[in-house]
Specification:
The chain is α/β, with parallel strands linked by helices and 264 residues long. It contains six helices and 15 strands. α1 crosses α3 and α5 crosses α6.
Amino acid sequence: MIIEEISAFARACLLKGRRSDLLIGRLGAQHLRASTTPFKRCALAKARIVLIYGEELKSRWKFALKFAKIYPYMVINYFGNGCFRLQSGETSLLVNPDNNRLKADVTLKTLTATAPEAVAEPTEEIVISFAGEYEEKEIEILGFPIAEESTDKFLKTAYAVLWEGMKFVFLGHLSKPIDATLMEEFSEPDVLFLPVGGGHFLEPEVAAKIAKQLEARIIIPSFYKDPTEFLKAFGKKGEEMDKFVFKQKDIATDRGRAVILKAN
C-alpha cells in the first residue's frame, strides 16, 4: 500500500537527515515505483509531511503537495545545565528540567536513575525517559540508548526529534564519542543540542569534532561554564542570545552556526 510505504520509508528518511525542501509538485506512479533513487527518497519524505499535517491525497498515485499551514515561530530558552524549553505555538517541549518549576506538554530526560525509589509516580504529564519510539502532540521522538555510558544505577538516552518539519538532536549527558550507527541517525539536524563542558560531559575538542561530523545547521552548547574552549576548537564565533527565535526558512542556509543562549 502506498500509504504504508510513505509512512515507513519517508519517516526514516526524515529522521536520518534527508531533508525535504517542501517544494510544491506532482508525483507520478513511475517515480513512486522507482527503486531507491534520490527522487523517490525526496518524494516519500515530502509525502510523509503531507500525511503529518493532514493534506489530502488527490489519488492513489498522484497528489499535490500544498502547505496551507503557516508554522509559528520556534522559541528556544535555556535554563542552565542541560535544560531547554522549546515552544511552537501552543505546544512546548521541555528537556532535562532540574526541578518541577517548569512545565511543558512533553518532557524529555536524557539521564534516568534506575533505583526503584527514584522512579517517579505516574502523572498526567507526558515524560519520556527511555529509548523507544514515541509520537506526542504531533512531535515524533526517537530515543536511542547510550549503552556504553549507562550503568546499573542510571541510563543515558539521546533523542532525535522531528517537529514542524525540522530535526532536533539532543545529546544530553553524552561524555564520549558515539558510534557510527548513532552518528548516521543523528546526521544533519537542523538544531543540535551538545554538551561541551568536559568532565562528566564531552570535552570541548571532542564536542567540536562531533558537531562538524553531524553537519548541523545550528549548534547550541549545554553543560558548560564557559563555551570559549568549545568555540575555539569548533573554529566559529558564537552568537549570544537571550533566546533563539526562528522559523525553518530562517536557518535554511545555515551550516555550523553556534548559538550561545544565556541561562534564564
